Amino acid sequence: MFRIVNKKELNSSVTLLEIEAPFVAKKAKAGQFIIFRVDDYSERVPLTIADYDREKGTVTIIFQKVGLSTNLLASKEVGDTIRDFVGPLGIATEYEGYKKVAVVGGGVGCAIAYPQAKALHELGVAVDVIAGFRNKDIVILEEEMKAVADNYYLMTDDGTKGEKGFVTDKLKALIEGGNQYDAVIAIGPIPMMKFVSLTTKPFGIKTIVSLNPIMIDGTGMCGGCRVTVGGKIKFACVDGPDFDGHEVDFDELMNRNSIYKEQEAEMAKTHICRMDKLAKELIH
Amino acid sequence: MANMSLEKIRMPEQAPDVRNKNFEEVALGYTKEMAMEEATRCLNCKHKPCVSGCPVNVRIPEFIAEIAKGDFMAAYKILTSTNALPAVCGRVCPQESQCESKCVRGIKGEPVAIGRLERFVADWYMANCDEMPEKPVQNGKKVAVIGSGPSSLTCASDLAKAGYAVTVFEAFHTAGGVLVYGIPEFRLPKAIVQKEIDKLAAMGVEVMTNMVIGKVLSIDEIIEDMGFDAVFIGTGAGLPSFMNIPGEALVGVYSANEYLTRINLMKAYLPDYDTPLRKSKAVAVVGGGNVAMDAARCAKRMGAEKVYIVYRRSEKEMPARLEEVHHAKEEGIEFHLLRNPVKILDDGKGQVCGIECLKMELGEPDASGRRSPVPIEGSNYVIDVDTVVMSIGTSPNPLIRSTTQGLEANRKGCLVVNEETNQTTREGVYAGGDAVTGAATVILAMGAGKKAAAAIDEYLKNK
């Protein structure tokens, strides 16, 4: 069992949990992920590591409530435990030889873009952060990002905070404005990563995306997380989760991630019953 | 006087059209009377050909003689003197190609039902005695066992009995390896596997789940930082193969590993669990091994109306156990033999709507001695399915060998070991089971675990 030691609601749908997992904390690096399972009946769900504290033996995850498991996880409080927490999985992001990097985060993806920006900053790399959100209400990690970025650009779709527009607008402007990036790291919804990759391709800038497909074990055993990269089948869990954005078949990934959409909606109904049952058990 | 009946005593089973809708065990096991009667079919041959057919050399005629006498406890003791997991082996071993293939009674008529008798004894013990073993006196040395499938469980059990402090590291959230994620409940109830793991715990074995060795800890850290005196790698062959044909990335294409893991380990068949699985009407399972039979029979139980096995050779070459093929047919699985998939068809929305196959004919025998299939040009046809399960084999996972210096593997990714001791190319590091042989059987993996445990004991005694 893994104990929750800290919890923060970053916005109405995004939650931060700091979880005691000393073995994971000892080895974790930016870009790697964990798989959690809330209780004996839950799915195994991968989440990229947002932060870690080797001395305290804790790992921080930031996630959006999108389905059954993430809602169940978000219902847990400090002091509660979750059943399973395994990692660090996947290959850590490599930063060798970079002088200047643009880190692009979209929505809850900023939670994973942040440790990348922080790691680069600590290595003495110049970091420009472009963070995009739908509106001002869901902006997360603004202060944290500013603390590690040389320049921080906030974009909202509706212009309620920062500049109005998409992250790709800003990225393109910065590149055309003469910024020489050795790499662009883009983390967010699949369409965002796709369009960031399309934006950088004409300029020939290396673009790294972090993929989060459906998976079970995280060790290369189920093949559920397979993605086509450069025309070849790759397993995101062991070959990634970082891949060259110019090579990823994003449309296929989007299609594959939709496999359980209908069932999830159906299960959400029955699941509420289970949550009620759990709540009643806690009260009695 | 021996019972000269030419046929085995039949084992009661759930009726095919009942069992293909539930996950309860298919075969129900012998009663005492049935077991005792079947046991009298054994001629107690002096040269014991059956024993030579068993990878762990179970003392077969001896335990059967005790059943015939009605002393099941004595039978159990003989059985478990060489086999740590009789309830498992009695259910999943391919007896027809091992012990029973050597049985003299099989020359004319059916061989003695050794597997069924083994299962009977193990089940009888569990139902009537069920004593937990005691923790042996500790010798102060520590051994790490990586993985918790059949080879690891056997190795851990033998080492624990010899007084070693054993820690089992399992990547998944539940121990048991392929016995829990792969083999379905209706063939091997998970309570049986759990009981074996509980026995290990009673002997002082610590099982650490959620530990992906090669990631969270390296073999070197296990030895140097955690102070383990030896390591056994029993990580199996878990990496799924795909055919590399068009359409394999469509929604509705699973590896058998994923499909079976969702159903068996993650219990997609029970309503209390959150595990999603595609609601399939028609499923094609590609492959002819036990795993393919398991996947097909699971698909039927999950509610698919049509389930097909698509296999590129003929039934004779199928690697699956006879009993599994027989059970699958009874349950309504349709076999498309000498058929090879060339393409999985897209419904236009990124989902599977069919599988295009090519008819094959048998040519000359290949390296494995099986006649290799040759495609018949222009014989393409389509089977309408909404789900495809690829069950064409697995290979060992590279996570450990890629993070451990000096651990050699062959070009198939199998760890290289000394055949006498099962030691890898690293001193103090042993390996066995599918991680060494590639995908094989439970009993071979157990034999390797046993051999390695003896070699580890020898090595640590002299260290």
UniProtKB/TrEMBL annotation, chain A:
Residues 1-95 form the FAD-binding FR-type domain. InterPro entries: Cyt_c3_hydrogenase_gsu (IPR012165), Dihydroorotate_DH_Fe-S-bd (IPR019480), FAD-bd_FR_type (IPR017927), FNR_nucleotide-bd (IPR039261), PyrK_electron_transfer (IPR050353), Riboflavin_synthase-like_b-brl (IPR017938). SUPFAM superfamilies: Ferredoxin reductase-like, C-terminal NADP-linked domain, Riboflavin synthase domain-like. CDD domains: DHOD_e_trans_like1. PROSITE patterns: FAD_FR. NCBIfam families: PRK06222.1. This is Sulfide/dihydroorotate dehydrogenase-like FAD/NAD-binding protein. It comes from Anaerotignum lactatifermentans.
From TrEMBL, chain B:
Residues 141-449 form the FAD/NAD(P)-binding domain. It comes from the Bacteria. SUPFAM superfamilies: alpha-helical ferredoxin (SSF46548), Nucleotide-binding domain (SSF51971). Pfam families: Fer4_20, Pyr_redox_2. Keywords: Oxidoreductase. Its EC number is 1.4.1.13. Residues 19-127 form the Dihydroprymidine dehydrogenase domain. InterPro entries: DPD_II, FAD/NAD-bd_sf, FAD/NAD-binding_dom, Helical_ferredxn, SudA-like. It is an enzyme of class 1 (oxidoreductase). The keyword Ribonucleoprotein does not apply. GO terms for molecular function: glutamate synthase (NADPH) activity. This is NADPH-dependent glutamate synthase. It comes from Anaerotignum lactatifermentans.
